[in-house]
Design a protein that fits this description.
The chain is an alpha+beta fold. The protein has one domain. 15% of the residues lie in helices and 15% in strands. The chain has 1 helix and 2 strands; from the N terminus they run βαβ. A two-stranded parallel ribbon has the order 1-2. The protein is elongated, with a radius of gyration of 11 Å.
Length: 40
C-alpha cells in the first residue's frame, strides 16, 4: 500500500524547532499514523 503524503509541522514530529527550544511531539502521529502517512 502506498502511503499518503501529508505536510506537518516538524515540532509535532519531535524536532526541537519551537521558539522555546522544545517540541510538541504527538506520539499518536509519530507511532500510530506513520504506518499510513509520509510526513513532508
Amino acid at each position: 500500500m502506498e502511503k499518503i503524503r501529508i505536510g506537518i509541522s516538524t515540532c509535532l514530529l519531535g524536532e526541537h524547532v519551537r521558539y522555546d527550544g522544545g517540541h510538541q511531539e504527538d506520539r499518536y502521529l509519530t507511532h500510530t499514523l506513520s504506518r499510513y502517512f509520509d510526513w513532508v
